[in-house]
Every structure is written in structure tokens, then in C-alpha cells.
Design a protein that fits this description.
The complex is a heterodimer of chains A (about 290) and B (about 425). Chain A has helices at about 5-35, 55-60, 65-95, 100-115, 115-125, 135-140, 155-180, 185-190, 200-225, 230-235, 245-255, 260-285, and strands at about 40, 50. With about 290 residues, chain A is mainly α. Chain A has one domain (about 60-290): MetI-like fold, CATH 1.10.3720. In chain A, strands 1-2 form a two-stranded antiparallel sheet. In chain A, α7 (about 155-180) crosses α9 (about 200-225). The relative contact order of chain A is 0.13. The two termini of chain B are about 45 Å apart. Chain B folds into 2 domains: about 35-165 and about 320-375, Periplasmic binding protein-like II (D-Maltodextrin-Binding Protein, domain 2); about 170-315 and about 400-435, Periplasmic binding protein-like II (D-Maltodextrin-Binding Protein, domain 2, 3-Layer(aba) Sandwich). Helix content of chain B is about 50%, strand content about 15%. The longest helix of chain B is centred in the N-terminal third of the chain and has 33 residues, at about 5-35. Chain B has helices at about 5-35, 60-75, 95-100, 115-120, 130-135, 145-150, 175-180, 190-200, 215-225, 245-260, 275-280, 290-295, 330-345, 345-355, 365, 370-375, 380-385, 400-415, 420-435; strands at about 50-55, 80-85, 110, 155, 155-160, 160-165, 170-175, 205-210, 265-270, 280-285, 305, 315, 320-325, 390. In chain B, strands 2-1-3-13-6 form a 5-stranded mixed beta sheet. In chain B, β1 (about 50-55), α2 and β2 form a beta-alpha-beta unit. Classes of the chains: A mainly alpha (about 290), B alpha/beta (about 425). The interface between A and B is medium-sized, with 23 and 29 residues.
Chain lengths: ~290, ~425
């Protein structure tokens, strides 16, 4: 065995454990998912009937699927940009030397490590129509709050608010790390050249230097948003009238309430393709600036 | 249970067995045989048979009573240990159970509404109890109501045994009735609407309609469907029958109550909760007898109960839970059967009914002097007992869970005005027919 061969073998051996785990727990399930999506299958039975693209045709013709697709886009649009602005703002604030900065960082990160189910239950109370704190606060400023969770129009905003609260800390930590990686000397040099600290340094130094982090947060947030399930389940069960049924919730409904694993797998496959395509697009256009 | 806690138990069992053999064998044997014939089949290894029992007793009081009864069973059946686990809300069990059955880890015994069992019987996950009933001379099948056996039958074989029965009626706030000068509870739909309207004032709603698409919404609505003269499925269970004039008027009745503001919609999938009613936010709610212990001990509201209002006829939905026996091995199945039998015994039925408000499943328990005397003192439960005469049951078809999900979604859509009642039911019927065909 030559030196090169030996090195190659060693390299493969190093990769092997990870590759093995990935193929068993990621690649195989995806392949299996696509296989199931081409069959009619009730989870309780071993028998699977090949139906070609019938599951895809059925879900694409389903009003509820189209509604779930639109709801997912609303949820993504409602959580990703706002969430990024909020967490970047928080990161900038907590990057400075204000009092109790460690406490505040921890406090803002806490929701992310709180169980979504527990938090969801608390938010159900907060959004209660006549006993919840949200409407109580709105009442103080003279606004009569809606019946958030029992309203087709307001259930999704409530779910989005809960998600923003929960995710802000996670993206904030990423932004904080990004901010701290920007060398102090760059700012010093800019100041010497006459740049005023504040908007000018943010626009010309912080933002471009932070872009790799921002890009990462964007990609991760989009994927998180497409995958969201727990808040919709815990707070409103995908309702009322399907107004918070996103694609993942639709998958759950098809699979476990209607027992139709084939259609559920078909939607999962479509969702996977969609997220892959979006991520590819993000890398295609977003990385140019990196 | 981990190894360390199993070992001492085993030792002590062995020691006890040796002790018993040496000194008391004849006596113990005779006694156990007389008290529990099932014990003669205790395993020879000396290790007790562990039977996993899933139930969804959410009310603390009911759970305590059940745990106490399980202790009695375990103490009187040395070879068997019933290990109970609470699975949470009964309406949300479907996905968990499907996953458990598909993964090969179902419980041995499950407490759940009998409407769901045929799905699991069809795929061979359940063990029929016919053999046990036939080969067990100590068990009196005729003592349990025939209708309940029918409910547990699929393909000519009995798969589940009744645990307790119930039905739906209306809780009302007596004080609010007095304030609105309502002399007697409404008996017809028209009277009910009128009553609800008169009770609506000062931020209080007359009635609460269950929101969400779960079985709770569906089974309460079915009462109104039946009252209007309708049926859920056709006589052969081959197609939907709820898309009838009766179905439309049942849905319109709910919509009218919401439209004129005399009813409010509940939290999503939480129509069974008593919190809004006990907090004085609504004057009437549909609920069952199982909250009896909670109702009796709370001090907020003076609670009355009256039968569901009648339209073309009087009707309520008979519910209750049965015990599902999942396939495992003969020894565990037989041990589980011992518990099923224990639950159907008059002792259990009487104690359970008196403590929790659930209705007994056997004639001997329902007509026992003890229970009758208890009913005399409890008008609340007397209403439910009387209503059993007009009770109807949901169809026992393997597709029931899916039919319920379809119907639940369209009922909600109609309540929120997305579709007219006619269109919502027509959509549900089309989907149901595709499923049953």
C-alpha cells in the first residue's frame, strides 16, 4: 500500500462513522419517504399498494393543502424578516457595555430552551379573550383586543408572536458571536478616517462584516419556519378552520388523524423539495456577497 | 421498573411462596381458589405478570379512585401486577396509539371509547375476549347490558369489554337561571334558544359551543343530528347519512345560537373543559356525568343538569370507555382478562359509579340497593341515568376516527361561516363516502 492509498484509507475511516450515522438516520429515511409517497399505506398494516403519483395528485387537488401552503408562506414571511430584525437589534444592544448585560442575554435566550409545549400553554392564557394579559394591556391603551385564538384572522398572528418570542434569543446569540468576531481595529481605522460611529459604521463596517452570520441566520430561520409544528399544535390545533394549518401540520393531520401515510409522505417530499430549492437559491444569490 | 427494584420483589415473592407451601399451603390454596379462580394460573417462575394499562383519567379524584381499585386488584391477585399509565386527553390518543401499535409496543390494556376499536381489530392488533367469556364459568355475561356488548363487537367477535358508561346532558348555573327568572329547564330546541338568549347578559353567554375539529365537537353535534331525526351513516355503514335535512337543521341550530350572540365558542378542542362554566362565563354547557366529583366539591357555582333538548325526538350520545385487550402472549392476555372481569364485577361498578359519577355497565350494579339509594340523593346523576333510554351509539366501523375528523373539520368550517351548512355537510359526505367505499 502506498502512502497515498494509506492516507486515503485513513480519511475514509475517519468519515465512516459520520457517514454511517447519516445514511441510517437521514439518507435512508428520505429514500423511504419517497417510496412511501408512491404507495397507499395505512400505518397499522404491513400491506402497501403502489399507486404511482396518485398521492401527489390527490393532495395537489385538495383545498386544504393549498391553504396549508399559503399559511406556511405567511408564517415564513411573518417570522423570518421580523425575527431577524429583532434579534439583530437585540444583539447590537447587548453587544454594548450596558448594565446587567449577561443577565439580559440569558433572559432573552431562555425562551429558546423552554419547552414549546409549556410555553404554548402559557401563551394560550396570555391570549385569552377576556382574562389574558395581552388584551388587558391593549385595553389600557383603549384597544379592544380580538379573540385571538378563536379567530381565523388573529390565530396566525398569535402563533407568529409566540414564535418570535421563542426564536429571538437563538438568532441573537448567533448575531452576537458574529459581532464579536468583527475586529475592533476596523472601527478604529474608520473613526480615524472620519466615519461617525452609529449608522455610518453600521452601514459600512458592521453590516458587510456580519453578512456571513446574517446569511447563516437567514438560511436557518427559513428552514425552522418551514418546519414549525408545535406552536400550531399546542395553541390552536391548526385551527380555527385550518387558519394555522401549515404544511407540517397538514402532514401530521393526514398521517395521524386520517391514517393516510402515503399522502402525508407525498406532502413531506414536496416540502423537502421546496426547502431544498429555497436553500439552493439562497446560496446561489446570497453567497455572492459573502 | 429497573433491575434493582425487581430483584427484592422476586426474593420476597419466593420466600413468601416457600413459607406458604410449608405452613399454609392448603389454606391459602383453598382461599385463593374461592376468591380468585384466575390465580391458579399464576406463572410458575414466581415473577408476577406485569400488565400495562393505559388510561386517560384526567380528573384527579377519578384517578385516585382508580389507583385505589388497582391496588385492591393487585393485592388480591398475587400473580398479577397492573401498571397504570395516564395518556392524557382521550381525544388526542389516536396518533400515540397508532405509533405504539405500528411500533409493536401497545399497552396490554387500554381504556378508551369503544368507537375506536374496530380499526385495531381489523389489523389483528386486538385479542378477542370470546374465548375467555366462554371458558370462564364464573363470569356472567348477561349481567352486562347487551347494547354494550354490541358496541364491542366487530366481525361477530367481542374485542372490548365495558368499563363504564356515560352520556351527554346540559349543566346549568342555577343562580343565573333564577336571576333570569327561568322557571324550568328548556325541553325543546325553541325553548333552549329562548333560554340561552335570556341568560346572555353582563358579559355572560347563555351557552358554549365546542370549537375545534376533534371528537368532542363531533359527538356533541351528533346528539343534535339524532334529535333532528338524522343518522350518522346509512344502515349498512357504507355511506354518509348526516348530509340530510336533519343534519342541516342541527348545524343551523348551532349557527343561530352563535349568530345572535347567545352562545360563545369554546377554546379549540377544549369543549369538554368545565373551566368557563365554573368561572361563571357561560350559563349552560354540554357535558357528562364524569365531572360529578369535581362538581360536588367546588363551591363557585350551584350546578344543575337537565336532559339535552328534544326536537323531532329526544336523543343523547352514549359514551363511556371500554377496555381494549391487545395481543401479547397467552399468560399476559389471561392476566389482563382477570382485570377486565374485575372491572365488570358489581363491587367495582358500584364503588366506581358512586365515587366518580360514571354510570354502571351491569344490571346488578345499576339495580343494587346501594346504587339506587345513591341516585335518590343525587338528582345530577339521575338525569344521566334516565337519559340512557334515549341514548344512541356511534357506528362501530374501522374508519370511525377518520369519519370523525372529516366531520369535525366541516362542522367547524360551517360554524365559522366558511361554508353554508348544506355545503359543509355535502363536502364531509363526499369525503366520507370515498373513505367507506
Amino acid at each position: 500500500m502506498t502512502r497515498l492509498q494509506k492516507d486515503t484509507l485513513t480519511a475514509y475511516l475517519f468519515v465512516l462513522p459520520a457517514a454511517l450515522l447519516l445514511s441510517v438516520f437521514v439518507v435512508y429515511p428520505i429514500v423511504d419517504l419517497v417510496v412511501v409517497s408512491l404507495h397507499e399505506w395505512n400505518i397499522l398494516e404491513d400491506r402497501m399498494t403502489y399507486v404511482a403519483a396518485a398521492n401527489y395528485r390527490a393532495v395537489l387537488a385538495d383545498d386544504a393543502f393549498r391553504q396549508a401552503f399559503v399559511n406556511t408562506l405567511i408564517f415564513v414571511a411573518g417570522t423570518v424578516p421580523t425575527g431577524m430584525v429583532i434579534s439583530l437589534g437585540l444583539a447590537l444592544l447587548l453587544d454594548s457595555r450596558i448594565r446587567a448585560v449577561r443577565f439580559l442575554r440569558a433572559a432573552i435566550f431562555t425562551p429558546y430552551v423552554t419547552s414549546t409545549v409549556a410555553a404554548g400553554v402559557v401563551f394560550v392564557w396570555l391570549f385569552d379573550v377576556d382574562q389574558g394579559s395581552v388584551n388587558a394591556v391593549l385595553g389600557v391603551v383603549g384597544i379592544k383586543g380580538p379573540n385571538w385564538l378563536q379567530s381565523e384572522a388573529w390565530a396566525m398572528p398569535a402563533v407568529i408572536l409566540m414564535t418570535l418570542w421563542r426564536q429571538a434569543g437563538y438568532s441573537m446569540v448567533l448575531f452576537l458571536a458574529g459581532l464579536q468576531a468583527i475586529p475592533e481595529s476596523t472601527y478604529e481605522a474608520a473613526t480615524i478616517d472620519g466615519a461617525r460611529p452609529g449608522w455610518q459604521t453600521f452601514r459600512h463596517i458592521t453590516w458587510p462584516q456580519l453578512w456571513p452570520t446574517t446569511f447563516f441566520v437567514l438560511v436557518v430561520s427559513v428552514i425552522f419556519a418551514f418546519r414549525a409544528f408545535e406552536p400550531m399544535y399546542v395553541m390552536v390545533r391548526g385551527g380555527p378552520v385550518g387558519s394555522t394549518t401549515t404544511l407540517v401540520y397538514y402532514v401530521f393531520d393526514r398521517a395521524f388523524r386520517f391514517g393516510d401515510m402515503g399522502q402525508a409522505a407525498a406532502v413531506s417530499t414536496l416540502l423537502l423539495a421546496l426547502v431544498l430549492a429555497l436553500t439552493w437559491l439562497q446560496f446561489r444569490f446570497g453567497r455572492d456577497e459573502v | 421498573m429497573d433491575e434493582s427494584s425487581v430483584k427484592p420483589r422476586r426474593n420476597s415473592t419466593l420466600k413468601r411462596a416457600q413459607y406458604a407451601c410449608q405452613y399454609f399451603a392448603p389454606l391459602v390454596l383453598t382461599l385463593t381458589l374461592v376468591a380468585n379462580p384466575g390465580c391458579s394460573r399464576a406463572p410458575e417462575t414466581g415473577l408476577p405478570i406485569r400488565v400495562t394499562f393505559w388510561h386517560g383519567m384526567e380528573l384527579g379524584v377519578n384517578n385516585e379512585v382508580l389507583e385505589a381499585k388497582i391496588r385492591v386488584f393487585n393485592d388480591s391477585h398475587p400473580g398479577i401486577v397492573i401498571e397504570s399509565q395516564i395518556f392524557g386527553a382521550a381525544d388526542q390518543l389516536g396518533p400515540k396509539l397508532d405509533a405504539a401499535v405500528a411500533g409493536g409496543t401497545p399497552p396490554d390494556l387500554l381504556w378508551w371509547a369503544p368507537a375506536y376499536f374496530p380499526k385495531y381489530a381489523r389489523v389483528g392488533a386486538l385479542q378477542s375476549v370470546d374465548e375467555f367469556i366462554e371458558s370462564d364459568p364464573t363470569f356472567l355475561k348477561d349481567d352486562v347490558y347487551d347494547a354494550l356488548w354490541e358496541l364491542g363487537t366487530y366481525g361477530g367477535r367481542v374485542f372490548v369489554t365495558p368499563f363504564s358508561a356515560n352520556n351527554l346532558a346540559v349543566y346549568y348555573n342555577k343562580e343565573m337561571f333564577d336571576r333570569a327568572r327561568i322557571e324550568r329547564p328548556p325541553e325543546t330546541w325553541d325553548e333552549f334558544r329562548d333560554t340561552a338568549a335570556r341568560l346572555t347578559r353582563d358579559g355572560v353567554h347563555g351557552f358554549q359551543i365546542p370549537a375545534g375539529t376533534s371528537e368532542w365537537t363531533v359527538w356533541t353535534w351528533q346528539c343534535f343530528l339524532w334529535q333532528a331525526g338524522g343518522e350518522i351513516l346509512d344502515a349498512e355503514n357504507r355511506s354518509a347519512a348526516f348530509d340530510s335535512r336533519a343534519g342541516v337543521s342541527a348545524l343551523e341550530f348551532w349557527r343561530a345560537l352563535l349568530a345572535d350572540g347567545s352562545a360563545v365558542i369554546s377554546e379549540t378542542d377544549a369543549g369538554y373543559k368545565t373551566s368557563d362554566f365554573l368561572a361563571g362565563r357561560v350559563a349552560m354547557v354540554i357535558n357528562g356525568p364524569w365531572n360529578y366529583a369535581e362538581i360536588r366539591t367546588q363551591r363557585n357555582v350551584d350546578v344543575g343538569v337537565f336532559p339535552l333538548p328534544a326536537n323531532e325526538r329526544a336523543a343523547t350520545n352514549i359514551g363511556g370507555e371500554s377496555l381494549f385487550l391487545f395481543q401479547s402472549n397467552p399468560a399476559r392476555e389471561r392476566a389482563a382478562w382477570e382485570f377486565m372481569k374485575f372491572v365488570m364485577s358489581p363491587d367495582f361498578q358500584i364503588d366506581w359509579a358512586i365515587a366518580t359519577g360514571y354510570l354502571p355497565v351491569s344490571k346488578s350494579a345499576a339495580t343494587s340497593p346501594e346504587y339506587l339509594a345513591f341516585l335518590d340523593r343525587n338528582a345530577f346523576l339521575e338525569v344521566y341515568n334516565r337519559q340512557m333510554n334515549v341514548g344512541r351509539v356511534r357506528p362501530s366501523v374501522p374508519e370511525y376516527a377518520a369519519v370523525s375528523a372529516i366531520l369535525g373539520r366541516q362542522i367547524e368550517a360551517a360554524l365559522y361561516g366558511k361554508y353554508s351548512s348544506e355545503e359543509a355537510l355535502a363536502r364531509a359526505a363526499a369525503e366520507t363516502d370515498r373513505l367507506l367505499r
